Amino acid sequence: MEFKNLLWNLEEEILTITINRADKLNALNADTLTDIKAAFEQAKKEKIKGVILVGAGDKAFVAGADISEFQGLDAQQSKALAQRGHDIFFAIEQMPIPVIAVVNGFALGGGCELSMACHLRIATPNAKFGQPEVNLGIIAGYGGTQRLVQYIGKAKALELHLTADMIDAQTALNLGLVNYVEADKNVAIEKAKSIIKKIGTKGPVAIAKVIECVNAYYKDGVDGFAAEVDAFGTIFNTSDVKEGVQAFLEKRKPDFQGK
Ligand code: COA
User: Fold this and answer.
1) Cα(25) to centroid of ligand 1, in Å?
2) Atom in ligand 1 nearest the alpha carbon of residue 108
């Protein structure tokens, strides 16, 4: 795969996507968003157990949307920009395989939002999370007003959005925004790989349905309980169910085929 600002590394069925604009703290300009969209579309076509998303360098995961591209935007153009970000981040959130953000350094604005669109977050001790958009007189536009509430609740989410304060990795862990804090970027990537490998031993259809059903909780107009009943039924159409149950009864490891 050829990208302007991303590195694509597929090894042992784990895809590592590195946002590669370290000189601009991996800020999300239009080209980088295009790359992210294309990378996840391609990832869906490959035989992959999970995706790790990380920022190049040690200073930042992503320091936000590219502020230089905000100059001269009118209301219609900025709305289109936000919608584009929403569509791409929803596509990440709805991936049928686990997507884990390794947050090494700043995850601000669109960077915090991108990490929140991933299923899990593993931070390094130098990670800093924040939604500092009000410093620029704007607000979060890639889902941050919604997803931050989902992860840490209304009071703390409002505080972070209103004050533009950053929180460190340990605070993010205490608030439930990140799943783990690991010693450094390499250790965090290894941790992400071990989680993906563990999930990779489970039934792939079941994994996809878990993601779909948990996401359903947050979807307007969707009854998540009904979605779960539907998904439960759908899963029983797969041969993986027979294999999983049979393997348990025969006291052996299941050999899931993902169908
Ligand atoms: N958009 C565009 N460029 C950005 C950027 C962003 N969101 N964040 C950082 N950069 C660029 C800087 O302009 C600088 O580029 P230059 O070397 O060509 O001048 C480079 O990345 C390094 O950043 P710098 O500000 O020099 O690093 P720092 O260590 O002094 O400060 C931050 C780090 C993260 C505190 C600071 O870069 C910052 O506040 N960034 C914006 C964060 C933000 O508001 N994000 C939300 C946007 S909606």
Assistant:
1) 6
2) 45
165-195 pLDDT, tens digit each: 999 999 999 999 999 999 999 999 999 999 9
Distance CA 119, CA 78 (A): 27
195 within ligand 1 shell (Cβ under 6 A):
no
Point out the residues that are catalytic: 113, 133
Alpha helices (H) along the chain: 30-45, 75-93, 110-117, 144-152, 154-163, 169-175, 185-200, 204-217, 224-235, 239-249
Among protein residues, the one whose CA lies closest to atom 18 of ligand 1 = 24
Tell me how far the alpha carbon of residue 156 lies from the centroid of ligand 1, in angstroms. 24
Task: For domain 6-199, give its CATH number from 3.20.20.140, 3.40.190.10, 3.20.20.450, 3.90.226.10.
Answer: 3.90.226.10
CB count within 10 Å of CB 211 equals: 18
- What gap in Å lies between CA 106 and CA 63, rounded to an integer? 6
